[in-house]
Design a protein that fits this description.
about 425 residues; alpha+beta; 9-stranded antiparallel sheet; 4-stranded parallel sheet; 14 helices; about 35% helix; about 25% strand; globular
Length: about 425
């Protein structure tokens, strides 16, 4: 790619300055795989130029992660030490505060062939251990953002017909395209995009909906009742200090909180889902009174069961998101095998926790107060894609009106 270095720098500047948006005096923590070092170095420089007080980089490696999960004892893998939590909390509690950028290069099948029960128990233990930090991110108390870069296993999964080098180049090009970097001015492109999504968000909030209904020819017939005082949100978030940031790069969604007890019907997954480094394909789930009572998957059914049995809240959903089939990710015609991208190619729901900010004043409420509004509680938050090319979505307003939201997979609002 002849202008790769130029595009990579634009990408780095964008994900730092618009994505995580470090403020003067803040510390930025970057979590990055080893193959992302060139991008991480550019992000470090961009963050300092934006006024960050310090930038810390935590390195990871998929080969090491797989070896530890495969060969390490469960006792050792769940023997988590206080510093692993405090490295985030100490900065979050400091005067300057912290923000976090996750650079990911996921291998969709990293843990294939490893005992799935072991993986689930280890990951559940890690989530429980990090719950205090998760409170910061779920409540947008700090800025956080996730952006991607290719790895060879991921690139070969997306482009199996190409050799490794060609697949890496093709995936880089695809990421630059759908993240609006290729055009040369990603900051202004994203400002315009965020304004469009904000307009849709405001229209959705003005409707004062009590539920949304999904239908498609694959058999989906799902009614999602909304949490009390539910608020629709869009691309940009705002920290408790009023700093605007972009949690997911890319993003195409307008989303809110379902009521944990008011989801009814059946829904079919429209894209494979990666959970614990393994694939779930062609699944459907049935809800009664907000909880999954039946499920099936052509591939990964046992894995889907583990997801749904993760904790008390994982059989209910904490998010419902509207994404048009006209999104750049869907128009690319590629399945990314990465939730970060695939959730922005299709409408989706998330098993597990609600974002407190999707109910009015929610970030200032206690867990008990959130629960009283129907906001789901869980250590999980796992997005699965349910939008189809022919999705028809309507909303029922609290005044009794029914409003058409999507026809043939795209907004009509």
């Amino acid at each position: 790619m002849e202008n790769f270095d130029e595009l990579l720098k634009k990408y780095a500047d964008f994900i730092v300055r618009v994505g995580v948006n470090p403020q003067p005096g803040q510390t930025l923590i970057i979590n990055c795989p080893l193959e992302g070092a060139p991008l991480a170095r550019l992000c470090v420089r961009s963050a300092y130029e934006a006024g960050a007080r310090d930038v810390q980089v935590n390195w990871s490696d998929d080969a090491v992660a797989r070896a530890r999960m495969e060969l390490g004892s469960e006792e050792a893998l769940t023997d988590l030490k206080p510093w692993q939590l405090r490295r985030y909390l100490d900065y979050a509690e400091s005067e300057g505060g912290v923000c976090v950028l996750h650079l990911i290069a996921d291998d969709p099948e990293l843990y294939v062939g490893i005992d799935g029960n072991k993986i689930s128990r280890v990951n559940a233990a890690r989530r429980a251990f990090m719950e205090e930090w998760q409170e910061y991110t779920m409540n947008d108390r700090v800025q956080w953002s996730i952006a991607a870069l290719p790895s060879v296993p991921w690139a070969k999964k997306v482009f199996p017909e190409l050799d490794a080098d060609a697949a890496m180049e093709a995936l880089w090009k695809l990421i630059f395209d759908v993240c609006r970097v290729t055009g040369g001015d990603p900051v202004n492109e994203w400002q315009a995009h965020m304004e469009r999504l904000s307009t849709l968000r405001d229209k959705m909030n003005a409707l004062d909906l009590e539920s949304v209904h999904f239908e498609s020819s694959n058999g989906t017939d799902l009614t999602v009742g909304l949490a009390d005082q539910a608020v629709w949100e869009s691309a940009a978030s705002k920290s408790e200090k009023g700093v605007v940031f972009l949690p997911n790069i890319p993003t195409e969604e307008v989303f809110t909180a379902p009521h944990k007890d008011r989801v009814e019907g059946v829904v079919y997954g429209t894209k494979p889902y990666v959970f614990n480094g393994q694939l779930i394909k062609n699944f459907h789930v049935t809800f009664e009174k907000g909880r999954v009572v039946d499920y099936h998957a052509e591939q990964g059914q046992v894995l889907l069961g583990r997801l749904l049995d993760g904790d008390e809240g994982s059989r209910s959903i904490g998010e419902v998101a509207l994404v048009p089939a006209s999104s750049p990710i869907n128009r690319s015609g590629k399945l990314f095998y990465s939730t970060l991208f695939d959730e922005n190619a299709a409408c989706h729901i998330a098993f597990g926790a609600s974002y407190p900010g999707t109910t009015k004043g929610g970030t200032a409420l206690t867990k008990e107060e959130l629960l009283a509004r129907g906001m789901n509680q869980s250590r999980l938050h796992e997005d699965v894609m349910i939008g189809a090319e022919d999705s028809h979505i309507t909303g029922k307003c609290r005044d009794g009106r029914t409003v058409e939201l999507f026809r043939d997979g795209v907004w009509v609002l």
